[in-house]
Fold this protein.
Amino acid sequence: MEIYNEEKFKRFMEENPFKFSEERIERAKKDFYEPRKGVMCDELVEFVLWANGYPARHEKFGDHLLPIIKRNEWKNVLEVGCGEVFLLSEYLFEKLEGKVKFTAMDKCGFARDSKDITLIDDEFTENYDISGYDLIIAQEPCEAAECIIKNCTENDKPFCVILCGAPHKRLTGEIDEDVNSWYIYLMKTYPQCGFGIWRNGRFHSGYIYSTEEFGL
Ligand SMILES: C[S@@+](CC[C@H](N)C(=O)[O-])C[C@H]1O[C@@H](n2cnc3c(N)ncnc32)[C@H](O)[C@@H]1O
């Protein structure tokens, strides 16, 4: 899989297919021209997937979720840690022809408004009221991951989360030294959940969910 093709990178920057803000464009450029060992920002991951003909992260996750949402006839979905452009909620809303209501939540605000998606600029917690939603989804929501797992597990709410490829703080405040230790901690603490490895192109990370129907 090709990564450092400058001509393609310049085209990606010009076309900006994922509506990156200036700040995100700068982040991608920094990682492209000054690569770090073993890590890559999400923006550069999107470039590598795009340049090699793989689906974007939100498209791959969205396509996995579509048949499950349809089969269960869920009508109200909350996406946590959606990022400033909430691409996953928007993708699902369009694919489901506007028949399902999507609420996208992020504690860092949004780069644009939406007439289709309800946006909540707030911090999700382990006690956040999720009673009005049929399903909670999240793509790499950093430290919100365990809040979602605990809240949904305690409230018997369907959920699935693609975890980050780096460890994030446990609810106890500790942080694991490496990502595998964090995944093992989550598996041991929430043994009733399913766990798998999510893959897209050369990238992979942990994936945790409430019931087998979300499995890979
Ligand atoms: C790595 S980004 C991923 C964004 C997007 N889901 C994506 O995959 O491109 C993680 C996002 O989670 C948000 N976040 C982290 N903890 C949160 C919390 N407790 N409540 C709401 N948003 C949170 C951050 O603000 C950030 O936008």
